[in-house]
Amino acid sequence: MSDAVPAGAVRTGLDRGPSGEMDELTALMSDPAFQQLEGRFGQFCPFEAVGMVRAEIRHSNYLGYILNPFRPHGFGTSILWAFLKCALIEDAMSTIEASALDDAEIRREWRNIDLLILLPKAKRIVAIELKIDASQSSDQLQRYRTIIEATWPGTEGWRYDYLFLTKHHEAPNDASWTEFKLHDLIDALSEFADASEHHASQAHEMLRSYISMMRRHHLGNKELERTARELWSKHGDALAYLMDRRPDPLQEVLDQIKEDGAAFVASISPAGVSVVADKHAKKILRYAYEDWDDLAAFRTAKDWTNTKRLMLLEIKKDETSIRAHLMMGPGTTPDRNAYIAGLAPVGSGRFISVVEEELMTLNSEPRMVYVDLVSKMADFTLRVFKEFDPVIRKVSAERTMGLSLPPKDPALSQ
Predict the structure, then answer these.
(1) What is the Cβ-side half-sphere exposure of residue 225, based on CA atoms within 13 angstroms?
(2) Which of 20, 161, 200, 321 is the most exposed place for a label (fewest CB within 10 A)?
């Protein structure tokens, strides 16, 4: 088939046929800016490898490690000093001598507080609560402050610095805490790394990797952003082509479940309970407890699937995760209301999630966790049946009795 362009016609972007697409992609991959960008992201990052990017507890673990002068990273007290200089106001730092760090103690998750720096010589406590993507709970910071001041009383000369370390602007709920921006911390660590005497050490390389990971995923990088804008300007059609064909690992898992068909159904079916497939959609897989099909007022759903089942097990994909649900669909009002009264779900609306559970996230490696997903779904299927089967049968029996009673004589109520 010819890629010839009719006289007077103009082709743009990747509408040029296969050869045009290949030319655009080749030009993109040959661009030095793209190769530089690829090199930056192609480097092995141990923090990404262990799933640390958005795991707050792992960030706290690493920060606690490098701030501890007695850990074998080789930084001694110098990185702790750099941290305190960045985090504390000048007046607070003026009261702390460098020698006060010699017996510093770093506590992790003491009484649920992310990081606690104890400086006994200076009679100083520095508390750090870290939030990457989460938000503070209503009384969390006040509760932590109360615990600290009861343990190290101000009447004994202790002084306190409370730092709320966060990626996003969020005022602390307790006035004693000071907002400490994550980008200020990373800038301070970067400055320390540039000036460090340990450039060849493994700990220094790890610190560099941590800083790079934080800039890539949380803080932005002006140089990379400038390169990205340049590439979009020069190769927008090729990049759009790649975006349209970006792999979707979560969808691949749903497709694998569909492909496994009866084998998957058998794997998630509790002993003695019949689970069957219902009507699937692209991002939603549906299954049903066949044991409920003959119950009164159960197959009364409307505008859902053609089986008319009022409740279905669903495996649903969103942008970041796959979750399992016991869903109640729309149905005839009296029957549906009876089941709602019996099940007492938290939500409301035409579609109600009675109970749900996360099966996997984007941070999971799909092929490695597929067996775990099947196992989780099997546990979910069993747990849901054990918990809700007696309730659903009770509601069904009550509906049967109510429907079978003769109409009440109005005269009897007079």
Answers:
(1) 7
(2) 200
Give the number of other Cβ atoms within 10 Å of residue 258's Cβ: 13
- C-alpha span between 74 and 98 (Å, rounded): 17
User: Please, where are the H alpha helices in 88-201?
Assistant: 90-93, 140-151, 182-195
Question: Residue 269 carries which side chain, given as an amino acid letter?
Answer: S
- Longest CA–CA span in the chain (Å) reads 97
The SS3 of residue 301 is strand
Which tokens sit at 212? 């790079």
pLDDT in tens, 245-267: 666 778 888 888 988 999 999 99
Cβ-contact 116, 127 below 8 angstroms = yes
The set of residues, in sequence order, having a beta carbon less than 8 Å from that of 411 and lying 6+ positions away, is none
Among candidate residues 260, 259, 221, 231, the one with its CA nearest the CA of residue 24:
231
Q: Please, how many CA atoms are within 13 Å of residue 129, restricted to the half-sphere of its CB? A: 27
Which pTM value belongs to this model? 0.47
Q: Map residue 80 onto helix, strand or coil.
A: helix
**Residue 219: DSSP 8-state:** I
The answer to whether 63 touches 73, Cβ cutoff 8 Å, is no
State the distance between the two ends of the chain, measured CA to CA, in whole angstroms.
87
CA 201 to chain centre: 33
